Amino acid sequence: MSPPMNDRALLRYSRQIMLEAIDIEGQERLLAGHALVVGAGGLGSPVALYLAAAGVGRLTLADADAVELSNLQRQIAHGEADLGRNKAASARESALGLNPECRIEAVETHLAGEALAAAVAAADVVLDCTDRFSSRYAINAACRAAGVPLVSGAAIRFSGQLAVFDPRDPEGPCYACLYPPDDSGDEALSCAESGVVAPLVGLVGSFQALEAIKLLSGAGTPHRGLSTFDGLTGQWRHFRVPRDPACPVCGG
């Protein structure tokens, strides 16, 4: 449990506390919460900044990559002074600049195997901000095994999508139900290969942060199904995602 909020914390989070769906109790749950953010690039940047600003008490940011000049078009947690730095370390510094009272750990390696399983099991919510199917499948399997909710986002070209997979819901699907491994292989989702318009990652990353805040605070109802956004038309679409009984990860 986090200590009781002092006057400074009450003022800092006052605009959230006044929301009936969050209130004091929800803010205290945020302060006691732990979010694992895998990927500190286009999606992970707004996720890390908004979760820290909103008062999530503990963040673990994981990314093995270094900041490059081409990242700065959209990865808002990094600046020119961060070129060559590890992305998790750079994002940690930016998030602490917003909220120095947040406990933030930078994991400067690629999380995989036992390290990934341990990091997921230690978190209350996991946000997948990666860009390859192999990473997404590994994170999904670790979340299913640990029973930890997963907030998955993707953004490429002008198209974005978001889904929440909660293993605590006996009827809920997992990422592999939506994208069966045999159908996708290890196809790259990289912006370096396909391009992406800058604000799109901010839109999807903010959506991910909102869902994580809801899950941690108990506000509202977690997102269900798959939401997609077409940046060229400004249209959102929502699709129901049933659980696949033949899913290799969560099926019977």
TrEMBL record:
Keywords: ATP-binding, Nucleotide-binding, Nucleotidyltransferase, Transferase. GO terms for molecular function: ATP binding; molybdopterin-synthase adenylyltransferase activity; sulfotransferase activity; thiosulfate-cyanide sulfurtransferase activity; ubiquitin-like modifier activating enzyme activity. Residues 13-249 form the THIF-type NAD/FAD binding fold domain. Catalyzes the adenylation by ATP of the carboxyl group of the C-terminal glycine of sulfur carrier protein MoaD. It comes from the Bacteria. This is Molybdopterin-synthase adenylyltransferase. One of its GO terms (cellular component) is cytosol. Belongs to the HesA/MoeB/ThiF family. It catalyses: [molybdopterin-synthase sulfur-carrier protein]-C-terminal Gly-Gly + ATP + H(+) = [molybdopterin-synthase sulfur-carrier protein]-C-terminal Gly-Gly-AMP + diphosphate. Homodimer. Forms a stable heterotetrameric complex of 2 MoeB and 2 MoaD during adenylation of MoaD. Gene3D superfamilies: NAD(P)-binding Rossmann-like Domain (3.40.50.720). Pfam families: ThiF. Its EC number is 2.7.7.80. InterPro entries: ThiF/MoeB/HesA, ThiF_NAD_FAD-bd, Ubiquitin-activating_enz. It comes from Halomonas campaniensis. It is an enzyme of class 2 (transferase). Pathway: Cofactor biosynthesis; molybdopterin biosynthesis.
